[in-house]
Amino acid sequence: MRVVCAVILVFEAVVIGLFIPVAISLEGMAPTTAASLWGGMAAVALVLSGLQKRRWAHYAAWALQAAFLFTSFMVSGAMLIAVVFVSLWVTGVILGRRTDEMKAAHAARAEAEAAAQRGEDGGGSVTTAPSRQTR
User: pTM to 2 decimals?
Assistant: First the structure.
C-alpha cells in the first residue's frame, strides 16, 4: 500500500506545483502567495512520499489530501483535478491494503507448505540409500 501511495503523492506534487502559474495568470493571485501555498504543498507531498513507510506520514498525507481539496476552490477548474487525485489516493489505499493482505496470505500459505514438507521428511533426518552388495 505504501508504494502505491508514494507514487500517487509524487504525481500529485507535480500537479500541485503546476497550480502556481495557473493561479498567478488566471486568477491574478500574488506570486508569493501562490508559490508559498502550492509550492509548500508540493514540497510536503514529495517529502511525505519518501516517508510513507512511517505510519504518521501516511496520516499526514490524508491531511494533505484534505488541504489540496480545500485550496482547489481558489483556482477555477482545479476542483476537478483535486477530486481526481483524492479519488486516486482513496483507491490506492483500498487496493494497496487488499494487495498487502493477499501478499500476507500467500506468504503464510508458502510457510505452511514449507513446514508441511519438513514434517514429511521426518524433521530433517537424513535417509541413506541401500548399499549394493557384490557377489
Answer: 0.74
